[in-house]
Design brief:
Length: 104
């Protein structure tokens, strides 16, 4: 399959997923990570959160990422998620697929 055909196929797939309001792998992973971290914070499971961080950092370093940078990113996420507020923006293009609702 040449590059142009592959790009067209990927665009068609993304467009179909958008119309179907189908989350992609990254959407699910973001929400799952938020839920897991918030749950550990809410239940005061600091040791479990640290074990989870160690495992995630280890898996990332196995891929070639820098260990200190991985720890820093994870720590930043925990600090951000600690507030309790949802860190996610609403997907307006999914809520109003035909454009923003003028009555809202």
């Amino acid at each position: 399959m040449n590059l142009k055909v592959a790009r067209q196929r990927q665009k068609a797939l993304r467009d179909a997923n958008r119309r179907a309001k189908r989350p992609d792998r990254d959407d699910v992973a973001r929400v799952a990570l938020f839920w897991l971290i918030r749950r550990a914070i809410d239940k005061d499971q600091q040791m479990e959160l640290e074990k989870f961080q160690n495992k995630i950092v280890s898996m990332l370093t196995d891929q070639g990422f820098d260990e200190r940078e991985c720890d820093a990113v994870f720590d930043d996420l925990v600090a951000k998620y600690r507030t309790g507020a949802s860190p996610f923006r609403r997907k307006i293009h999914l809520i109003y697929p035909d454009g923003a609702d003028n009555e809202v």
